[in-house]
Amino acid sequence: MAARPRGWPDRLFGLAVSGGRLVTVSTALQPASSAAAPRLAARVSRVAAMRRLGAAIAGLLIAGAAQLGATGPASAQGFTYNQPAPRPKPPRVPNDNQMLVQATEVDYDYNNNRVSAVGNVQLYYNGTSVEADKVIYDQKTKRLHAEGNIRMTDADGKITYANVMDLSDDYRDGFVDSLHVDTEDSTRMAATRADRSSGNYTVFENGVYTACAPCKDDPKKPPLWQVKGMRIIHDQVDKMLYFETAQFEFFGVPVAYLPYFSTPDPTVKRKSGFLMPGYFPGTAQTGFGVEVPYYWAIAPDYDATFTPRFMTRQGVLLQGEFRQRLVDGAYQIRAYGIDQLDPGAFAGQPGDRQFRGGVETKGQFAVNDKWVWGWDGVFLSDYFFFSDYRLAQYKDLMNSFILLPTEAISQLYLTGVGNRSFFDVRTIYYLSFSGNQQQVPVIYPVLDYSNVFNYPIFGGEVSYKTNFVNLTRNDAVFDPITTLANTNGLCTAASADPMARLPTQCLLRGIPGTYTRLSAEAQWRRSFTDSAGEIWTPFVSVRADAINADISNQPGVANFLPVGDTQALRVMPTVGLEYRYPFINSQPWGSTTIEPIAQVIIRPNESYAGKLPNEDAQSLVFDTTNLFSVDKFSGYDRVEGGGRANVGVQSTTQFDRGGTVKVLFGQSYQLFGLNSFSVRDVTNTGIDSGLQKTASDYVSSVEYSPNRTYTFSVRSRFDEQTWNVQRLEAEARANFDRWSVSMMYGDYAAQPDLGYLTRREGILASGSVKLATNWVATGSVRWDLVANNVNQYVVGAGYVDDCFVLAANYVTSYSYTAGGTPPVLGHAYMLQLGLRTIANTSVSVAATGQ
User: Fold this and answer.
1) Is the peptide bond before 512 cis (omega within 30 degrees of 0)?
2) pTM for the full model?
3) Helix, strand, or coil here: 59?
4) What is the C-alpha separation between 678 and 676, in angstroms, rounded?
């Protein structure tokens, strides 16, 4: 046990050593007598040296700890890493730049000017703790020496291990033997020796880096992957790590060698440099190519990525992206350009030109906590540029069950969301990828606003909504719905009997000219419950539409609508009453609620039915979701009129041991006036919907959830006379710990007035299974039962853990060619490889189209 020197201040080194208990050493100085002043000054220098001991250890190890980081923005398709949970950071304890030392024994060698802390040494300094068996500070050489089970935890949670450490007290020079570092984000690095010189450079001998956790059963077993370097040099000024004679290993087996490899150090989140190269399989027109991205971290708030693609046939395709984040939002700009070496490869197609390019941009900014504004923009030299070079939306082959886009949207918008209100206004320009730009509308603007009053009026809830739209289109959009030859000619030929062509030959999907409409609707409703438990809900609404249509006199348009200027004011007042009477039956196994529902709606006929353009209400599916809707049209251009009754019964069964069954069955009746769904308009909306008859088809739905694992649902529509199935969708889902599966069966009767000339029937199935701890297999398939063939599917398997991703997929997707040629179902293979903190890459190769 060390003796306490006489004449030292009481709090300079307060030693409480008894029975091997720890000794607390504090640098809080107390006043001393003038006689002790000379000795005190000498001892104070030693105290400062001890204070520097903790700082030196922290400085060397913080600067020397290394990990490999991404040099730019990371992106991945398909599988993603199972990110490890971040290690909690140790709490910061303020200590006024003082160092606290705990040890079993502290020795002072005055002859050699050495201070030694021995046995379970613990140093605490500015949020950093260091543990070791022994720490020695040499005042003559100004060197620190620590040895035995060294463990340092810095303020950020990084843990560093070593056996021997020797460095100068200003930690500019020194070495560490058997270095091992665990960082907060679960990356690890080790080296046999680390030498530091000039305060800027640290050289790791025989360094190893990995982002994989060690094997729990055998920690000495090589990790899944690691990077080794004969020498790893850390440049603290440039914040870079340089690997010399590096090799990549999988399960301890070398698979790739690199004479030189560099990456930013662990303190850098964004660093300029080259990213992982990519391979472009190409086509016969472009040739295959290689992409070499370069990331430029210009400033903390903005950066850029340049991605030249070198192709064997067309030369260099330049790609660049600029991104900036501001205080209230962010925006980005992506540009493309190529001076094609062989434009003739696209002879007869839009790509037959020397220069091709495009620009994409988007941004969004917050005005305050309720309002945002932003934009999306796409500008192209020709409409097939993205498709030919597989850019933007055409780049992702994993979206196998979503048809590749037929248009891009450029828009400017302002959106506000309140507690019970919503506002949105935007202008939209659609860029056609099929070359039919003259048939695509330009919208300037479309506005939606809705609000619900926060206080009752006459005891009920009052709400209102408005919609305004103004659009223009150059050419009419006809949709032939017949198998006859020369259908386009049939659509544009003049007819002595206008409207006669609608049911069997053509639809007018879009009018040529300008269309403007302002709609406003207010509604009041209130619910009452009488003494018998019956629920009565009266409601009143009024809607007004002001419409102006300036329709160009193009061939065939007059067969559908009057050309020239048309103004119309359409008003639809509505009065209705809804009745519900729930019956509850309780049993030992659960409870059942049966609720008859009846709804009566009184209103005048739809004025101008079939006489005005229909741009936004062209789809109508009648089922239980809109059985009790006051207006069953999906948009504003049509409005339901006439007296109508909607009736049905709803049943809900709740089992005490879990599980529910919900059933709804009903029908709709036209009571009086004009049936809006029997009126043929320019798109035949409502025809063949099941509502065009006085008594509608029957609609039903059944949902059964026995537990959280299984879900079953059936939605159907039956002919009200024959009970033939007009529309049927049955879906089943199951989710277990290791696997999930879903299947949907669809059966749809022919709807010739809408262009569906034959019955449609098919099955869509998808599923995934966890084969092992980190192995996953997925698959999806769509089977056309009418044609008896499988027309879309994707199968794949992958390995996913916290540091590695490997996935292979076989994908079918549709590809498009210029003009009106139908899409062709193609096949592709896709391989994805990812090493966390280093790179992610994917390669896709197209197979022969079928």
Assistant:
1) no
2) 0.75
3) helix
4) 6
